Amino acid sequence: xxxxxxxxxxxxxxxxxxxxxxxxxxxxxxxxxxxxxxxxxxxxxxxxxxxxxxxxxxxxxxxxxxxxxxxxxxxxxxxxxxxxxxxxxxxxxxxxxxxxxxxxxxxxxxxxxxxxxxxxxxxxxxxxxxxxxxxxxxxxxxxxxxxxxxxxxxxxxxxxxxxxxxxxxxxxxxxxxxxxxxxxxxxxxxxxxxxxxxxxxxxxxxxxxxxxxxxxxxxxxxxxxxxxxxxxx
Length: 233
Hints:
By secondary structure, the chain is α/β, with parallel strands linked by helices. The protein is 24% helix and 30% strand. It contains 6 helices and 12 strands. The strands form 2 sheets. Strands 5-4-3-6-7-12-11 form a 7-stranded mixed sheet. The chain starts with a helix and ends with a strand.
């Protein structure tokens, strides 16, 4: 991977002529996102993210932290937070922003000796699972680093709305695989990232996956556009 997402974050942090990030998926056309969105303050965050941060407690792990906005808010509240991301440039930016504990780390490689009271996976946290087939692997790993009374706060969207409707109201969805399994492509400053799998999960599918992996699943809040925040414990 070229780490273009992280490069955009670092460019913004260091005032190195940042440009919009262009995202594209298998079911959506190219769309521009301003990098500044990743640096938003608590008051500019969607209600799902605000609620997750309000519920965060104890020793916290922020998975896929990006520019570190969630972790920074929690750190400023005096909470102990570890921010991880696979992007080296994103972690550089997090440290420049003042995050005390930001690490280049893949969730699957975490030391199971470390336990967390709250694990955050926000901005479509189910995305890192990649495909349905990977869910159990990730949930088991998350479970292994969760303290006995801990919580996993994760958000996603049911993207069924993106598919065309038939006259009878039924949806035209692909017959092969789950409709939330997408391939994502990022472009930045005329460079194109290697495409990668990204997973959107409807709540029922997440709940079933949680139960089959020995986790409770609770719907915390629903957003305005088919999105939701769930708590696994």
